[in-house]
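Work Package 4 report. The design task specified in the project plan requires that, given a folded chain encoded as structure tokens, an amino acid be chosen for each position. We show below one input record used in the internal validation round.
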């Protein structure tokens, strides 16, 4: 499955990683890791996310106040919403 991120979502998560790493060394890296785990879970079960609009689903991150909003087809997973929180 191809995974793509909207540029605004990619930028927001990158900024959050830097912010959390400034708060506590390694904390931003933990956020990045949690996002990777979330994406892997979404790929494994794309229908598990909560439906927020007819074609948009939401997967909450456990440790951080963010969520991954995504659309999925059989071939592609796209995070195309700016809202991670």
């Amino acid at each position: 499955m191809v995974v793509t991120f909207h540029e605004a979502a990619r930028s927001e998560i990158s900024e959050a990683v830097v912010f959390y790493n400034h708060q506590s060394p390694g904390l931003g890296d933990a956020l990045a890791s949690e996002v990777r785990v979330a994406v892997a879970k979404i790929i494994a079960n794309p229908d598990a996310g909560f439906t927020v609009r007819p074609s948009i689903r939401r997967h909450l991150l456990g440790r951080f106040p963010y969520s991954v909003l995504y659309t999925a087809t059989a071939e592609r997973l796209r995070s195309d919403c700016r809202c991670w929180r």
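The first helix runs from residue 7 to 23. Validation will be extended to a larger panel in the next phase.
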